[in-house]
Amino acid sequence: MRRGDHFESGRRGRPARSSIPLGVSGVASLLLGLALGCAHGGHAGHRDDDADADHSDRASSGAESAAAERAEHAARHAAIDRLVAIQDIEQLKARFMRCVDTKNLPCLRDEVFAPGAEIHFKGADYDISAVGWTAIEKFYESAFTTKKFGMHTAHTPEITVSGDTARGTWYLHDIFVNLEENTTLQGSALYDDSYARIDGEWRIMYSTYERLWEETTPRNPKTKLGSRSVKE
Predict the structure, then answer these.
(1) How many domains does the chain have?
(2) 162-172 pLDDT, tens digit each
């Protein structure tokens, strides 16, 4: 071979080697690299999707937790409001008893009954109804005097509150002295009351009872009577 021919073969060989396709190992390496790249990109996509889902779950969980906390807070305040209302109504009923037994009519008018209130009391030999303060006042004026007075107590209240209205059931025990007829009455009944909150204060709208039992006995002339609840 001539020197020139050898040189030309060399020149031809170098370019030829650069244009020959890759060997099996080279192709495998390329394909492996592409596969790994795709796999890496795929995993990254999954991680992004998982991160988005996790963030969405946390946001949803946080919103639900906040809503539950607000609901619990509102329920707690509503329960406290009901307890306060029940306590106020119990005080109202106690005031009613005190004002009746002492015949404190201004107290009954201004601190117990609502405007337009109604009463209905039924016993063995009486059935009394009155609507509005004028009629209620007339009843208490005649029912309680220095010769007719007594003790009224209310027990075991069952009170339900709904906003600015309420209902109450009470057990009544009373003793009533009637010096005009020389008798003493004792008995029990169940009050059924309706209440309303007016200008922030609870008042009786309707009060009724029907006797469970009562007994009237003549007074013993020898029985000594001390102070009386109704004054001149």
Answers:
(1) 1
(2) 999 999 999 99
